[in-house]
Amino acid sequence: MNIGLLGFGVVGKGVYEITQQRSDMQVTHVLCLEDIQLPDAKVAKDFREILDDETVDTVVEAMGGLHPAYEFVKAAIEAGKNVVTSNKALVCTFYDELIPLAKEKGVSFRSTAAVGGGIGWLSELERARRVQKLQQVGGIMNGTCNYILDNMTRLGLDYSVVLKQAQQLGYAEANPSTDVDGIDTWHKVILSANIAFGVTVDKETVPVAGISRITAEDVANFKAHGRICKLISTGKCVDGVYSVYVQPTLVKDGEPEAAVPMNYNLITFIGEISGRMSFFGQGAGRYPTAYNVVQDLVDVLEGKSFYAPYGQKVSADNSEKLCYYIRGGKGLPAPATEIWGNAAITDRVSVSAVHAWLKQNPEAFIAAL
Ligand code: HSE
Known about the structure:
- The chain is an alpha/beta fold.
- The protein has helices at 10-20, 48-51, 69-78, 88-93, 95-105, 121-131, 143-155, 159-168, 177-180, 183-197, 216-224, 286-301, 351-360, and strands at residues 2-6, 26-31, 42-44, 58-61, 82-85, 109-110, 134-140, 200-201, 227-238, 241-252, 264-271, 275-282, 313-314, 321-322, 324-327, 336-340, 343-346, 349-350, 365-368.
- It folds into three domains: 2-110, NAD(P)-binding Rossmann-like Domain (Rossmann fold), CATH 3.40.50; 121-282 and 311-318, Dihydrodipicolinate Reductase, domain 2 (2-Layer Sandwich), CATH 3.30.360; 319-369, no CATH class.
- Helix content is 35%, strand content 26%.
- Helix 1 crosses helix 12, helix 3 runs parallel beside helix 5 and helix 6 (121-131) packs parallel to helix 10 (183-197).
- The mean pLDDT is 97.
- The structure holds L-homoserine.
């Protein structure tokens, strides 16, 4: 296998190092705008050098961002090259276009590292759905949020202090919105639901609430009631009705999610035969992520294409009713049944109603119970 590697940052460099030790694949070209020299690969500044080279059969996209990653990946598929990417925003945003295109062109398209970093989550979903109907996917899919929430819970620190630590450790981006506003998790659960249920979930129908409004006082309220806050994604399919959403959730002390430390992920599926299966590990970082890119490359060599057939477009219904912790905002989306410090616990109310209320009250913090 001859690989054209797009990007030579955290993940790209890791992929290059791992493939150097293998005889079944080699990086022959690297797209990198910096002046670097590699002993065994051509460094290109123009993507066309890779696209037009017929000896390159597989493109690894490790650039991140939507553009020009999308244009490069699309052109590679159109040229008949296999694609492996770790870019969840790209796969999720252009799912409708890239998955059918890869099928039409008869090339492999894999993105295991896009969800869960080094956890073999999407590839396990591919296996899981071969022998059973999947009913639910989701869990803790963002290491930065988990790091922040875990440190606030264990040490009683303020959000802004822990966010700064996460940035210093390189977990959170300088602009942390993608992580803390839940967008990264949103992409990951939509992609997981698409694969698990064999559908294309309409992204516009998937609400997301992040953690950026949480305070040390909220965390103290949770502790006083034996709860721990985690950013949890949910994708469910019950009798053909889909619920897909991302929101802070108060898990009970003793539940598996409550024990997830630092920047780790815990992702779960529930299947009608297997029941609950959970996957724990490092959701980010050079070697865990590059490891899964290389796993995908081996799968490409073995002839595996995408994880699931491209399926019909469905809307998330989200009429499921839950109780919520709500602090701030005007009024409440449902009557209060309890007061926890300066916050209310509401009666059961639909996920969609709470997220619609939150849109009108963006200064509020919500968490499902
Ligand atoms: N920023 C992500 C996280 C890693 O914190 O989990 C890449 O998906």
